[in-house]
Design a protein that fits this description.
The chain is an all-beta fold. Helices cover about 0% and strands about 45% of the residues. The chain has one helix and 27 strands. The radius of gyration is 18 Å and the shape is globular.
């Protein structure tokens, strides 16, 4: 009698290509308090994150240490939409066409994509400041899920995942996260995925309207290394794509937690921080922060 097979086929490798690179006029290396804490004190010209399409179909990315939001109009066309005294990380399209920023210093902010005007949405929780927000995503009912990561990790697994409802109610869904980073929803919005960077895991848990969370489980594990999973995106086939800085990869995982693709970004750098799908639904756009560029990869249908 044969033993059942206890492994999965190797994922298909896809090589990322260059989509666009930050123009030289925006590359002035400098020391910031963000780079002192997060990049070993290096002088850096940018750290790209938060790729997101607005309601007009324009691609936007954030630049954390310099407080910039860029609109990318093509391979060499970059425009500063907003520049402010903050550390913008995650970016999400809100109902009604505004954009929401998960800002490490200032909490949740709103961004007007027409004017670049920024305003506070949620700066504190019961008058207490956040640890440092990282990413956000919207549900169809208008609730926004966001991660409060700060400097949490294996040494301090107290990172949070929160949900802000349109009526102002706030739920704490997870409070024991070892560095909660990217957050995404499955297509049916019955479950949330959260990237726990420092434990190299993706957690999956069911969403309920009453904010009671049970049966949170380990959905996928990233190979250990110098950094774990970061931003994520879900495609139209309910496959989860996970940026993996350190290894220079993006993993494509099916709804059962089986790796189907691995997108190799190492020709450009080892720090793919986040990803989103273009309006065509098949082109994955990836912020690669070591090179200050946006990469692209075409993802085959199942």
């Amino acid at each position: 009698m044969q033993c059942p097979r206890m492994h999965f086929p190797a994922p298909v490798t896809i090589t990322a290509r260059l989509f666009s690179s930050l123009p030289q006029q925006f590359r002035t290396p400098r020391h910031t308090s963000w780079s002192a804490a997060n990049r070993n004190g290096q002088a850096i010209d940018s750290f790209l994150e938060g790729p997101c399409f607005d309601a007009a179909g324009r691609l936007l990315v954030t630049d954390i240490p310099n407080g910039r939001i860029f609109i990318i109009g093509g391979p060499t066309s970059w425009q500063v939409l907003a520049e402010y005294d903050g550390w913008p990380n995650g970016l999400a399209l809100a109902p009604g066409g505004a954009l929401t920023i998960a800002d490490y210093r200032h909490g949740l902010l709103t961004l007007d994509p027409a004017t670049g005007a920024i305003a506070p949405l949620l700066e504190t929780l019961l008058s207490e400041g956040f640890r440092g927000l990282n990413d956000c995503t919207y549900a169809r009912d208008g609730a926004v899920l966001f991660t409060d990561q700060g400097q949490t990790g294996l040494q301090d697994p107290t990172g949070r995942v929160l949900r802000l409802h349109p009526d102002g109610r706030i739920d704490t869904l997870i409070r024991n996260g070892p560095s909660p980073n990217g957050v995404a929803l499955n297509r049916a919005e019955t479950h949330a995925y959260v990237a726990m960077t420092r434990s190299c895991e993706i957690w999956r848990f069911p969403l309920r309207p009453d904010a009671q969370i049970g049966k949170a489980n380990l959905f996928f594990r990233i190979p250990a290394g110098i950094s774990g999973p970061d931003g994520m995106a879900v495609d139209g086939h309910d496959r989860l794509f996970i940026a993996n800085p350190g290894h220079g990869l993006v993993w494509g995982v099916d709804a059962h937690g089986v790796a189907k693709f691995v997108i190799d970004c190492t020709a450009f750098g080892r720090t793919p921080t986040n990803c989103c799908f273009a309006p065509d639904g098949t082109t994955l756009l990836i912020t690669e922060s070591q090179s200050g560029s946006v990469l692209a990869a075409e993802v085959p249908a199942p």
